[in-house]
Amino acid sequence: MKNLLHILEGRLEALPVRMAVQLPAGQRLGARNAAVTLRFRDRMALLALASGEIGNVGAAIVEGKVALEGSMRELMAAAAGLLTGNPAQEPSHMWWRRVLARARSMAVHTLQNDARHVQFHYDLSDDFYALWLDPRRVYSCAYFCDPGMTLARAQEAKLDLICRKLRLQPGERFLDIGAGWGALLLWAAEHYGVDATGITLSRNQHAHVQQRIAERGLTELVRIELRDYRELQVQEPFDKVASVGMFEHVGRAKMNAYFATVRNLLRRGGLLLNHGITAGGVDNAQLGAGMGDFIEQYIFPGGELLHASAVLHDMAQAGLEMVDTENLRPHYARTLWAWSDALEAVLEPARQVLLAQVGPERADKALRAYRLYLAGSALGFERGWMALHQILAVRPDGNMGSGTMTGAQSVYPFTRDYMYTTKDRTPCSTNSSPDPRPI
């Protein structure tokens, strides 16, 4: 125990923020006027702190074995200083972990399990998410193309960027896989005149989107189905497909089949925009230092991340040609900090909402878990442990004469300027009113 305390004292002194630790017996280590204090009721959590297993310390906080005092931003600065290595870099001799992870991925990602995993996270409480998301409830990386943008405007900019990248045209059939609370579906229909179909596994989101479609008089243009992507049957393929923040739930072992299914849902010559979180490390099955285990247990059961190179490999194997890739990693860090700050500002209302919907035990654990998840994820994107890629791909039609250039074999023009400028809008315009209606 003395050696452990000596190690802890040394590590606390080296941190970039003033941090203190209170031991189970009441002894205090670290700075007197600490910005962050952790009060331990469990000796094993102390060992995790000393060894840099910050994900396990987070789990102890969620379970009430460690009490936290201080801001999430200061806690994350301390957490980064406590790490003993890069959590995105798995040692090469751990190849057997990747084999086991793939086997587990194959077993875990069934239709029933995936539905249960999605509902565990997204059906926690609509009212809870509404407290800290933007008015449109866009639960994915925003696009801060203007540094002065609010989160709400940056989310609109992201929605419009996706629509422009897909070159959406009036009357086209558009599919949104994992449609969330419907922001992209409604934006695409209202601003680009497409016939939009969304699918989700979340019962709460499905009901919410149905209500918004009716309220906005879009029943002829927009529909939402409570359905797994593997069960979607269509008479004719879609012109354009988007998948935003969804393929993280697919699983490494099922990624080939996922892109093959998406390819079959897309017409020849059509465009796919896959927007999702990717791994910062090339080979790691999940983040180290206990962080991957924390996310699996409390936030996204069954979630798995792939490096962008692996995503491109699986896309290509499925017959999809990547034509543009953009990394929005710092944008997601800023998005997550905005969510974290918003949640921190309404902790008691958030607790009351959760109490009313899931009961006291789960409410308190969920609130602690989300506080750590949002701030910890912001730290991860800042540090490059994770990334956010928008990958635009085509399903080649095999016709050398189609498209704007010989061999294009698609509607993609093989220039990028159309994504950022239009005849009547500036690159960062969103065609939005200053005070968007909540949807």
In short:
The chain contains 16 helices and 11 strands. The protein is α/β, with parallel strands linked by helices and 439 residues long.
Chart the SSEs and their pairings.
Blueprint: H1 2-13, E1 19-22, E2 28-30, E3 36-40, H2 43-50, H3 54-62, E4 66-69, H4 72-82, H5 95-108, H6 111-122, H7 126-132, H8 151-165, E5 173-177, H9 183-192, E6 195-200, H10 203-215, E7 222-226, E8 238-244, H11 255-265, E9 266-279, H12 291-298, H13 308-317, E10 321-327, H14 329-344, H15 347-358, H16 360-383, E11 386-394
Parallel strand pairs: 1-3, 5-6, 5-8, 6-7, 8-9
Antiparallel strand pairs: 1-2, 3-4, 9-11, 10-11
Provide structural commentary.
There is one protein chain. Helices cover 44% and strands 16% of the residues. The protein contains 16 helices and eleven strands. Helix 10 links the parallel strand 6 (195-200) and strand 7. The protein is an alpha/beta fold and 439 residues long. The model is unreliable at 433-439 (pLDDT under 50).
Report the strand count: 11
CATH topology of the largest domain: Rossmann fold
CATH level-1 class of the largest domain: Alpha Beta
Helix proportion: 40-55%
Low-confidence stretches: 433-439
Biggest beta-sheet profile: 7 strands, mixed
Going by helix content, strand content and strand pairing, the class is alpha/beta
Question: What would you report as the Rg, rounded to the nearest angstrom?
Answer: 23 Å
Q: What is the arithmetic mean of pLDDT?
A: 87
* CATH homology superfamily name of the largest domain: Vaccinia Virus protein VP39
Give the termini distance in whole angstroms: 55 Å
Keywords: Lipid metabolism, Methyltransferase, S-adenosyl-L-methionine, Transferase
Pfam family, one: CMAS
Protein name: SAM-dependent methyltransferase
GO molecular function: methyltransferase activity
